[in-house]
Amino acid sequence: MTTMHDVIVIGGGSMGAAAAWQLAQKGKNVLALEQFDIPHTKGSYHGESRLIRFAYKQGDHYVPLLLRARDLWREIEQHTGEKLFFDVGGLSIAAPETEAYLEGVYRSVKKYDIPHKVMTGAEVNKQYPAFNLPHDFIAVHDSWAGYLLSEKAVPAFARLAQAAGANIMTNTKVLSWGSDGSTVTVTTDKGAHKAEKLVIAPGAWFSTLVPEFNTVLKTIRVAISWYAPQNKAAFTPDKMPIFIMRDRTDRNGCYGLPICDAVPGMKIGQHFHLGEEVTGDSIDRAPTPADEHVTRYWTDTFFDLKDAPCLNTAICMYTKTPDEAFILGLHPRHENVILGHACSGHGFKFAPVIGEILSDLATDGTTRHDIAAHMPQRFQQEVS
User: Fold this and answer.
1) Domain ranges, residue 109
2) pLDDT tens digits for 247-301?
């Protein structure tokens, strides 16, 4: 027997669970479908933590979304009584040869009056002894930045959604979906379900369910490692900010966090890692020596971590668009189907506001948030 709902959400990860929470708060009859457990380690949000920053190199148009996300992160903490957002500050770092990397950072801090300080590498090393930067490097300190406990946040979204009345089915794989214009039908390995609206937010499995975007999206295997410092006191959140950095070359930049939560080491990864294209089902999740080699370049060169033991390496995925913006809006051919793809390696921090946007679109067909840069229609030629 097929069940009927107001909205079905495909995906119980960061964006899907946040959307289910927002929709349930509005009194909608919501069914969320997740192919794994909540949480799990097969997607893009595991690995303990994620950065949040407001001096935003990707463009100052992201900042209003970030400010709303910050408010919602605080709201979630109030609802759950769980600390998820730690505003320890953050550094955006570049060599003089790659200072263009910071252009978006400079624009955003000026436009939105973000408390900040421009520092030399020498000044960073003096204030934050964990760093060992060349003295001529440039850094912008963002006082509002910090980190989020991602593996705790997604279950928090799910619990809030359930408390508001949402039905969440885990370990339920979506096989297909279809829309006749007024009703959507979603078929899973446990049965079929119907709804007036459908939100598709399955992370790295997006193009499996919306194959029109196969030529647009690329899923990249990424490795993140944790290193055990000898001087642990210099790597704690009260002494070390989060960071993103570009060196003197054209290699992808790195990012990282101080010691936090469960793993007693500094976390670091290289943006887009080795660029290895995978799918959510084909990815090799076993760490390799090549994975560690990538991150150890950064730790040995720019931090007080030379030859530090690697405590752990986790494998996750970035699913990126060509412009590294998101996909938020109505399906090109189905007005009752809403698309939510907010990855490209910098999406997690936006999760609660993306959930709000998807909820708005599913409820009203529009949103007060500026999502012009993220509309699916920009790929009209590729998906037509």
Assistant:
1) 75-148+218-320
2) 999 778 999 999 997 789 999 999 999 999 999 999 999 999 999 999 999 999 9
Whether residue 190 is found in the same domain as residue 94: no
- Residue 83 and residue 125: Cα distance in Å, rounded? 29
pLDDT in the model for residue 25: 97
Q: Which two tokens stand for residue 76?
A: 């979630």
Tokens in use for 303?
């931090």
Query: Does 55 reside within a domain?
Result: no
* Sheet containing 85-86: order of strands: 50-52, 146-148, 85-86
Shared domain check, 194 and 112: no
Q: One-letter amino acid identity for 290?
A: A
Pairwise CA distance, residues 244 & 46, whole Å = 19
Spatial distance between the Cα atoms of 353 and 360, rounded to a whole number of angstroms:
10
For residue 276, give the DSSP letter: -
Which residue, 326, 330, 334, 294, is CA-closest to 310? 294
Express each pLDDT in 161-171 by its tens digit.
999 999 999 99
Mean pLDDT of 143-148: 98
Q: Do 29 and 108 share a domain, yes or no?
A: no
CB count in 10 Å sphere of residue 284? 10
Structural domain contains residue 195: yes
Q: Which of 320, 342, 371 is the last residue of a domain?
A: 320
Strands, E, within 215-309: which ranges?
Answer: 218-227, 242-246, 254-257, 266-270, 277-278
Same domain flag for 31 and 129: no
Rounded CA gap, 239 and 222, in Å? Answer: 27
The Cα–Cα gap between 351 and 261 comes to: 20
